Amino acid sequence: MTVGLASIAATAVLMALPPMIGYQPYYLYLLATAFVFATLAAAWNLLAYAGQISFGHAAFFGAGAYAAALSSLGGLSPWHAIGHGGAAGAGAALLIGMASVRLRGAYLALATLAYAEIGRGIALNWTAVTGGGAGLIGIPPLPIASWLPARLSRPRAASYYAALAMLLAVLALFVLIVRSRTGLAFSAIREEEERASLLGLRPLGWKLLAFALSGGFTGLAAGLYVHMVRVVEPDLVFNRYYSILPLVMAMVGGLHGVLGPATAAIGLYLLSELVLHPLAPALHQAGYALALILVVLCWPGGLTGLISGSRRAHP
Amino acid sequence: MRRRTLSPPAPLLDPRLRATIGVAFSRGDAALSFASLLQAIVSGALIGCFYALMALGFSMVLGVSRTLNLAHGELVIVGGYIGYWLWAGSGLTPLWLVPVAAATLLPLGLLWQWLLRRVPEPRELNSLVVTFGLSLLLQTVIRALWQADYRLIADPMLTASLRIGLVSLNVGRLLAAATALLVVALLWLALRHTRWGRAVRATSLDAQAAALLGINVDGATRTTFLLAFALSGATGVLFATLHYIYPAAGVELTLMAIVLAIWAGVGRLRSVLAAGVALGVLEAIAVAWSGPRWRETAVALLLLGSLLARAGGLARGMAPHGGGHA
């Protein structure tokens, strides 16, 4: 209950933030990107909730980014394009999920790593569609909602609210899933796949559902992100960065928790960009790596585990 | 020929050699002439020996500690950058730099062992997570220290080539292959015939049982890590003489090392060599057929195919019922 109230309060504060700080494009952009990463971390965590640890969310991110960019450049409205990004992410995740049914644990992780590399290779070499290594440029920004007060209707504010809405949507979906039979099925498959299937669950369908949901939100986040940065390149959107960051953020926040991964994502991203980047521009990504190593070796439970005092929860 | 804009394709064959082979080697030409096919197979086999050498460190670490080191390729690249840096600074023959690069990686070996022995169960998955972080860390450090430029130890001695009949052999590749064969032979002898080798093999088979029998498991593990890291550093220098290195070049090497571990099993030195040659030849034929653009993707596809074919049984030497003997 208190968690619910606290999250409603936090949402209200986040919604009121842009009018309070005035029009600060840089900070709005930074926060919107933090929400995008929080969505990625929550989407990654959704798949981890069903017991599948992915090292290749860059594959879903890249697929979503290219689908959104191509739709947008093809003349669709950015909102439709973002939807296409989500569909492409879900489709890629379904394909990958179906192709790796037989793999579990570490071997699934290795396979997802390979999928992300393959995606990057396709984007680099399918020049006619993807523009090859040069990528695609000139993606339009999000439209300005003219009915909003002037202060809220600037481009950066639009992406800020879109990213916040997307984050809230993925968190709400997570809560619904955790409290439903779907969540029970996911955790049964995560903890004891054989026993779950003996009890009459079909792991394949549930796993594919988890893949599709996780990939779909990753694709949506990617679609929104390309309308913020307005360029896609293979080495940008299929970067390992989008595989490793959601993993780091979810593990630091505490696997399988609802709010932990998103909170950790926002915290780590802002820490990295506002504190570490000015201190050591070349080395600021090392912060994520160190956080990951520390969490796995010293606090397997992440932030959630520290607060609740439990030290369980490993992948 | 269309080139990737972001990175020059790593030259599988050096340009002059490519020019001598001529048109038949151009991208997308399915009709390979006999000479170019032979050339591809021979150079592929040579580089394949080198791949086996490169993968040994990964396979040894996996054998003794049941951990998958995703930062393996980055470690090799660190060795390569150290070699490049010393070579560019001193102008010494690259061969003298091999031991220096090997020695530089020794402290990292101790650090990795210290970190990886603390990894909680399930060890394979958690070691992947930790070393994924370590690979990001190493890439960041490499990028900070040496920038994102492409480096190659272009020593005139190594880029020369010998012509034997239809094929021409690159001296650098010959040297790398010879080193690989020598190292594999020495390691095979050491694992077979020394006390240390028996301890390492016993540890790979079943660390608990080995410890119960009074084998110094910790010592064997530590020396294996040190040896594996020294080998990785050394292969890094050789790699930098054969290929351009850049901060993200290690990713592909890691994938190759995993492919070889799947194909050969862990600790089977002769199989690693055979698998390395097979990988090298496959790669050379693929590149000869489709051009270098698809090289990295092809390696990822190979990894995927091998994983699916083995459906998770990565290392025979790792499982208690497997055979870890060389």
Structure, described:
The complex is a heterodimer of chains A (315) and B (326). Chain A has 315 residues and is an all-alpha fold. Chain A has a domain at 24-241. Helix content of chain A is 74%, strand content 1%. Chain A contains 15 helices and two strands. Chain A has helices at 2-21, 25-49, 57-73, 78-99, 105-125, 127-130, 155-178, 181-191, 193-198, 203-229, 234-237, 241-253, 260-279, 286-297, 302-308, and strands at residues 136-137, 231-232. A two-stranded antiparallel sheet of chain A has the order 1-2. By secondary structure, chain B is mainly alpha-helical. Chain B has one domain (34-310): ABC transporter involved in vitamin B12 uptake, BtuC, CATH 1.10.3470. Chain B has helices spanning 15-21, 34-65, 72-90, 94-116, 123-146, 156-159, 171-193, 195-205, 207-212, 217-242, 250-264, 269-290, 295-310, and strands at 161-164, 167-170. Chain B has a two-stranded antiparallel ribbon with strand order 1-2. Chain B is globular. Chain B starts with 14 loop residues before the first helix and ends in a 16-residue tail after the last helix. Chains A and B meet through helix 5, helix 12 and helix 14 of A and helix 5, helix 11 and helix 13 of B.
